[in-house]
Amino acid sequence: MARKVGEQTVYFDNKITIAEVSSAVGPMEGNGPLGKDFDLVFEDDCLGESTFEKGECMMLRKCVENLLRKGKFTQSDIDLIIGGDLLNQIITTTFAAENFDMMYWGVYSACSSFSEALQIASTAIEAGVVKRAVACSSSHFSTAERQYRNPLELGSQSKATAQRTATASGAVVLQAGGSGPVITGMTIGKIIDFDRKDAADMGTAMAPAAAHTILTHFKDTNTSFADYDMVYTGDLAKVGLGILSDMLKMHGYDPSGRLNDCGHMLFDCVKQHADCGGSGAGCSSSVFCGHIFPKLKNKELGRILFVPTGALLSTVSSYQKNSIPCIAHAVVIENKKDKK
């Protein structure tokens, strides 16, 4: 049975294994520093479809198909697919999931949708509801821009604090038992709102939520950075990562080279003119599946804290001058399950 520790943290008693992973990205991500790490790199960000939205859906579909192929799973081997994206009514995930004969849970937690999917899938496996589940997420630069910001045709110039939404997808198979890195615990986030209202400065808005979840996890579990090989946040990019580091130091925790961010890693901001880094629901999932998971699998990393972050705004809330509520969900992943 799962056991709650402290205020927001849960340890799993059963062995919840990450059996296989898959990643898919667009052309700009493929040309970035992590380009060689991804399974699928598409040169056409529409993937031959008639719209960017259909292209994003096809990208996620191909990502999941590749996941099943790599793991030699049939659709009947998977009980549940759970995931989310950034578009209204999570249409990317829904239209992709309809191609698979699996039970479906659609989730929305903005750029932290992947960690929320990991948490819910792990909880379902721990409870014995399912034996094997796919957790996934997706985003696309062009679909997100015209939903949240400006039509691409305007050619609007980005602010220095802006982040580029990743055209990317990531998917994993979680299962009860088996071999591979294990999800041993999670810290469920709370909504943190520092009254930020600038949709072109997500890093500043999300950093306090990341700090709150990490600090709560350390307090709940009596751990620190010394207990993890790395702590990876999801979508803070250059600005947010700097703010997070300062906030953690203010509370007495020095990252000491053990803190990095998926959005900060995904692009070469100068050479690729990628604003201050990446964001999007597919940012953390693709970087985890393409870059971080192999380091866990080959024992280069023994134990990590994975903390994607999400800005829970909408076009409606922005038009009404509301602030940007944010959240961060953490997952503990390690090579072998320790007794807690």
Summary tags:
16 strands; about 350 residues; Peroxisomal Thiolase, Chain A, domain 1; two-stranded parallel ribbon; 12-stranded mixed sheet; alpha/beta; globular; 10 helices
Relative strand content: 15-25%
Query: Which structural class fits the helix and strand makeup?
Result: alpha/beta
SSE pattern, N- to C-terminal: EEHEHEHEHEHEEEHEHEHEHEEHEE
Q: How many whole angstroms does the radius of gyration measure?
A: 18 Å
Task: Work out the number of β strands.
Answer: 16
CATH fold descriptor of the largest domain: Peroxisomal Thiolase, Chain A, domain 1
User: Could you say how many structural domains there are in total?
Assistant: 2
Major β-sheet, in short?
12 strands, mixed
Unreliably modeled segments: none
Notes on the protein architecture:
The protein has 340 residues and is of the alpha/beta class. It folds into 2 domains: 160 residues, Peroxisomal Thiolase, Chain A, domain 1; 153 residues, 3-Layer(aba) Sandwich (Peroxisomal Thiolase, Chain A, domain 1). Helix content is 34%, strand content 24%. It has 10 helices and 16 strands. The strands form 3 sheets. Strands 1, 2, 3, 4, 5, 6, 8, 9, 10, 11, 13 and 16 form a 12-stranded mixed β-sheet that branches. The longest helix has 20 residues. It is globular, with a radius of gyration of 18 Å. The relative contact order is 0.19. The model has no long low-confidence stretch (mean pLDDT 94).
